[in-house]
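Side project, low priority. Logging it here so it doesn't get lost.
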Amino acid sequence: MNSTKTKLCLLVLAASTAGALLARADSKPTNSVPHIRSVFTAPKNSKEGRDPFFPESTRLVDISAPTNRAPEITSLTVPGISGTPEHLLAIINNHTFAVGDEGDVLTATGRIHLRCVEIQTNAVVVEVDGQLHRIKLETNKQ
């Protein structure tokens, strides 16, 4: 008897909930709110804005001011060439490259993305921004 009452109560509750959901789905909203998108712009200097969590940081200002300077090729060095004659490897600014390898190297002026085109016995030919450059092997002058 007790389980019959429970089943009846659950049936009435389910029917009333379903009716309310159907009534809500049929009705149209009376006032539609337009979707507003947030727009964030990076500040050009610290007076235009700053990071509220790290107010002394210049990270946002550094990101918003891109530099269009040419990479400093003279800061690329080749301290060594190794490997077998069939498979030479060149060390360019502490990164090892084989012919055809691409990668970023760190310099005093920033990162430079390069591709190793050719490795000779005393020099390396690299491509930086579509231009070929020949970097001579450093020799110890002591």
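Brief comment: The chain has a mean pLDDT of 81.
Revisit when time allows.
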